[in-house]
Amino acid sequence: MVNNKIAVIAKKEFFDSLKSKTFLIIFGIFLVLMLVSSITGINNYDKQLDQYQKLQADTQGIEENDVFSYFPEPKLTAVIFREMVSNIGIIGAIMAIILGYNAVSGEKERGNLKLLLSYPLYREDVINGKFLGKIGVLILTLAITSILSIACALVMGVNLTGSDLISITLFMVISTLYLITFLGISIFFSTVSKNGTSSILYSFMFWVVSTMIITSFSAVVSDAMVPIDDTVFYGGKVTSTDSFSITFSNTDGENVSEDGGESSFNKYQKKWKIQNTIESFLSPTQNYEQISGAVLGDDFVNIMVTDSSIQSETDMLEVLSGKISNIISMLVWAIISLIATYLVFMRQDIR
């Protein structure tokens, strides 16, 4: 009986959300961006694959420890979905906020909440129904996005393997969990706010802090802890000899050996780890990007976050286990917001 009540509320929230003009506009923008990202990613993959094949042909016979032998073959899912990760991180979060900002505050403004609670319902049934209905909308949105992306890849002649489809599926699952995080935050602010304007303002303030301010703060802290002379890289030049050895030159004209470059890279790696640690505790968006990069096989993420500069293909379970701390950190915000919503809503005086 309780499940039936929750299902009725969830169904109503699901269809009400799909009828919302504001949501439909955001959904349309999101869908267009995803489609453009897919087409752009496929074109980039074709170009990078051609460049990789040419490089392999030009460097045949070079010793394995040579720097040019380290260029990896482009990963299909990483290249195609790289822009999509950024779009979901930004536009997807906004869409989740739009879905939840008036879940409770809107009912208060319209005077429907008091009427709703006059029925034989527990307050937690109302929250559960609203959450499930709006989660259903997010799942539908990402399902449509993934189908369009796969269809676009097939039409443009890209062959997707079984491992590629597994990576895409896991990517969409991680994306759903990420959007649920911002949905939970938005519903929490909708519960504590008296009107929708305050709710959406607080939700966007959280989004700005977690995606932009935290990133800037972590960069400042990492710069202070690991100072690096950027002139080695940004003011230098690379020259090659017959043996493909590399020499860096700084702005003073002084040569920096390959060992010096490697040392600087290690500093950058250490700096990245400090910045990543801070962001992992405070930013759902950064955690989402780290997890998605690992699932899709993004080489840049693998190189900067792990101890080895060259990553071999690993089992997907190993990839996820290596990112378990990021997954937990991302979901903590959703869990905290859900618990806080329950506590606040149970004690509110609804008039």
From TrEMBL:
UniProt keyword terms in alphabetical order: Membrane, Transmembrane, Transmembrane helix
Domain of life: Archaea
GO cellular component, one term: plasma membrane
Transmembrane region(s): 21-42, 84-104, 137-159, 165-189, 201-221, 324-345
Coiled coil: none
Pfam families reported for this sequence: ABC2_membrane_2
MF-aspect GO terms: ABC-type transporter activity
Protein name per the record: ABC-type transport system involved in multi-copper enzyme maturation, permease component
The species this protein was found in: Methanosarcina horonobensis HB-1 = JCM 15518
